[in-house]
């Protein structure tokens, strides 16, 4: 087992390699996530949260600091090491068999409940995870998968559903940038009838062509009754499309099958009761007519 570190350690420990400076927005915890974390957790504590295509997002460290266990999957070891360096966390690395032919490097943080898998997301499975997750924080993974094709996007969605507990919550951030944008309509079609999709909010990143960075706007857009919106302009028509990037947030949850079945049974009972009452009401009206004739 190898031991490495994002800061100085013992003789057998090493520093994570230095990396080029990243844009400032990559260093910050997602503001919509922080403001709406109860949407992700359902107000519950000590959850096991999955972060697909996690990159080096500081959201993982922040969620772990809230008391949750984090498991992430990332195809680039450079981003995994950058995460630990940025977070100033020491870590260990172990090999783990994830398919019949493939092994993954598994990075485990010291002092925080964070485990990151260096592997292809499609080689990750429920068996590898060792159980289903309470929640999934899906930060702009879908547009990346969509670039691989519609079939891959459907496979990815099915994988996420297989990893989520029946009462789990899947919070999705979708970046409207380029041709791989996943609309709300596409999202609802992907998850099918077994899930509900609810819009949470929108935020804007302003693209600076000179600095090649995104700068967050001071304002955020919450849901004001636009639960079925289709990622439109939302009144920002004065912005240049080449400068503004919209980030849309949705919550995916499984429909309550028990409640749905209960409502169906109740509806069926009400229909039967109406059928039973109808002949009695008809006979009563006939008697009233006879009395009126007399």
Automatic annotation (TrEMBL):
Ranges of Basic and acidic residues composition bias in the record: 218-239, 268-279
Stretch list, region Disordered: 1-25, 211-245, 258-294
Pfam families attached to this UniProt entry: TPMT
Keyword 4Fe-4S in record: no
GO molecular function: thiopurine S-methyltransferase activity
SUPFAM superfamilies (UniProt xref): S-adenosyl-L-methionine-dependent methyltransferases
Top-rank taxon: Eukaryota
Alphabetical list of InterPro entries matching this protein: SAM-dependent_MTases_sf, TPMT
Bias (Basic residues) ranges: 1-10, 280-294
Gene Ontology BP terms: methylation
Gene3D superfamilies per the UniProt record, alphabetical: Vaccinia Virus protein VP39
Annotated protein name in UniProt: Thiopurine S-methyltransferase
Upper taxonomic lineage: Eukaryota, Metazoa, Cnidaria, Anthozoa, Hexacorallia
